[in-house]
Structure formats: structure tokens, C-alpha cells
């Protein structure tokens, strides 16, 4: 689905979400992963793909000195010395509504409750495989319609437990062996989340 979705579409949806959140809940924190469409940069840094003239324009806009005879490689070195912090469209959109965006670290799906929900839905479908694309579409819709708010809360708590574990590690706190995320028996396991929906 990532190939059929882009930053413009996501930002349009995000603006609608921010409007709704501001109206119903006030300022919120919005967590996003590092998907490309979540991180459209408003101030892109020049790369080797840029034309020399575009790199020169980038430098001139920032009043950075360079010689007119400098080759592209030299210009790129100059831009590296003047690297700017990234400014993302999603962060700007959220800020317009007094919301704040936080990005989860890469390669940590356990911090994304939606990944747990996807797993719940996919596990249900895997039990009874579809034979046609139409049937698959129906099974996907049926599987997601059976995800309850209780399952969402459990998925959120599971992700928060992982977050707490990582924060404790970052803070240098001593953790008891039974606090390890890998063997986390306090949070709901995937089979528990799936089983609960069957009732």
C-alpha cells in the first residue's frame, strides 16, 4: 500500500485529523513512524542528484559564499558544512493546530500499536485463506471490523510497556529480569488479542 500513497495524500488526511483532534480533544501528541510520506522535508539538503545551478541557488538563498568556478563536488562539500535541521511538513501542519509530532525510532514496530492490530487482523485471515482477491478483500474488512476498542487499548498498553522499557534503559535504571520486553508476561500476547476477538 505504501506505493499507492504519497506525502500529499497523507498531509491532506493529516490536516483533517488535526482539525478533528483540535476540535474534540485540544492539543495532542501525534506519533508517526519514519514512512517516507510522513517525512516530506520542507528544506531538503542538496544531494548529488541536484543540478549544479540548483545547489548554487540553495547556497545563495542562505548567503553562503562560494566561487563561481567551483565544481559540483566542491559545492556539495560546502552544503554539508552548512547542514540545517530537517523541517517536516507533518510537523508544521500539526503545529498549526497546536499539536506536536513525535517520530518513533526506525526498525521498532513494537512501539507502533497499529502493527499489533495489523498482526491480529492478518493472523485471523491466515487461519482461513481466501481463494480470490474479492474474498480476500471481504476477509480483511471482516477482520478489521472485529477489532474492538478493548483490543486497541491492549495494543496501546503493550507498546507503552515497550516504550517504558526503552526509556528505563536510556535513563540507566536497573531493570529486574522479569521486566524485559521479550518475555513480557504483563502485557497481552498476540494470541490473547486474537482470541479475545473470537468471543
TrEMBL record:
Instruction: Specify where the region named Disordered lies, as residue ranges.
Output: 176-199
Write out the GO MF terms.
nucleic acid binding
Gene3D superfamilies attached here?
A: Ribonuclease H-like superfamily/Ribonuclease H
Spell out the Acidic residues composition-biased ranges.
176-185
- Every copy of the Tc1-like transposase DDE domain together lies at 2-133
Which stretches are transmembrane? none
Which InterPro entries does the record match to this protein?
A: RNaseH_sf, Tc1-like_DDE_dom
- PANTHER family linked: DUF4371 DOMAIN-CONTAINING PROTEIN (PTHR33939:SF1), PROTEIN CBG22215 (PTHR33939)
Which named protein is this?
Tc1-like transposase DDE domain-containing protein
Native organism is Achlya hypogyna
Amino acid at each position: 500500500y505504501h506505493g499507492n500513497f504519497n506525502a500529499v495524500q497523507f498531509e491532506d488526511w493529516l490536516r483533517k485529523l488535526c482539525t478533528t483532534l483540535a476540535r474534540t480533544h485540544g492539543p495532542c501528541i501525534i506519533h508517526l513512524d519514519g514512512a517516507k510520506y510522513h517525512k516530506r522535508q520542507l528544506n531538503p539538503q542538496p544531494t548529488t542528484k541536484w543540478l549544479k545551478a540548483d545547489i548554487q541557488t540553495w547556497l545563495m538563498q542562505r548567503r553562503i559564499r562560494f566561487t563561481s568556478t567551483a565544481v559540483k563536488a566542491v559545492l556539495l562539500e560546502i552544503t554539508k558544512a552548512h547542514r540545517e535541521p530537517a523541517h517536516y511538513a507533518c510537523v508544521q501542519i500539526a503545529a498549526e493546530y497546536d499539536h506536536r509530532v513525535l517520530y518513533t525510532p526506525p526498525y521498532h514496530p513494537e512501539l507502533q500499536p497499529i502493527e499489533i492490530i495489523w498482526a491480529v487482523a492478518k493472523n485471523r485471515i491466515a487461519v482461513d485463506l481466501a481463494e480470490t482477491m474479492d474474498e480476500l478483500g471481504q476477509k480483511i474488512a471482516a477482520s478489521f471490523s472485529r477489532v474492538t476498542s478493548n483490543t486497541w487499548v491492549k495494543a496501546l498498553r503493550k507498546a507503552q510497556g515497550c516504550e517504558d522499557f526503552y526509556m528505563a534503559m536510556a535513563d540507566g535504571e536497573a531493570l529486574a529480569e522479569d521486566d524485559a520486553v521479550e518475555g513480557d508476561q504483563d502485557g497481552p500476547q498476540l494470541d490473547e488479542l486474537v482470541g479475545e476477538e473470537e468471543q
